[in-house]
Backbone:
């Protein structure tokens, strides 16, 4: 399948109207195809690599939001040595690496969530994602607690698609050193 980035709003809307279990494989295929598309790489990704090493932290360089919140397509830049906190999203999500390599760590939640501010996590797995590796998918809420970063020595870029939110908050941030969790509000 060839993905045209110019036509992607229609494709994204179709994907994001599906139930989560159907949307995730479609989103993964869309992103895996997109990060192999020469026109997309040349116009949207390669320019971001210039200057990425000068940034102190990771950042969202491009963002395309549906007006009604049905989806958000975001391009993340990961300078060497940067990474997110451990977090979860209030929507399903999928992402594919478009340049360099990103490392994803995934965590299981061991407690039942009944105690406010408390979460006990256990690391489940970690994987390195490069452009030829396809896309990673995440379920909403505690279904896919993860951390993404770039422990390498060259910048990385990844493309993320998020479906509609299931809650008011954007997601949650976790600190396993203190068994702590807090809501992350909408930016
Ligand atoms: Fe995430």
Residues:
């Amino acid at each position: 399948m060839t993905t045209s980035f110019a036509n992607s709003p229609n494709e994204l809307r179709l994907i994001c109207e599906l139930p989560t279990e159907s949307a995730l494989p479609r989103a993964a295929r869309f992103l895996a195809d997109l990060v192999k598309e020469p026109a997309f790489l040349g116009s949207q990704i390669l320019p971001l690599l210039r200057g990425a090493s000068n940034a102190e932290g990771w950042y969202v360089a491009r963002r395309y939001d549906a007006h009604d919140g049905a989806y958000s397509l975001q391009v993340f830049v990961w300078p060497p040595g940067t990474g997110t906190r451990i977090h979860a999203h209030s929507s399903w999500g999928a992402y594919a690496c478009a340049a360099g390599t990103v490392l994803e760590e995934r965590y299981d939640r061991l407690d039942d969530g009944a105690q406010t501010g408390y979460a006990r996590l256990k690391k489940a797995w970690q994987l390195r994602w490069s452009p030829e590796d396809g896309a990673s998918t995440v379920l909403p809420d505690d279904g896919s607690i993860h951390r993404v970063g770039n422990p390498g020595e060259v910048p990385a870029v990844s493309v993320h698609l998020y479906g509609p939110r299931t809650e008011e908050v954007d997601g949650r941030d976790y600190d396993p050193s203190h068994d702590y969790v807090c809501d992350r509000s909408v930016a």
Summary: The CA atoms of residues 74 and 95 lie 9 Å apart. The longest strand covers residues 121-129.
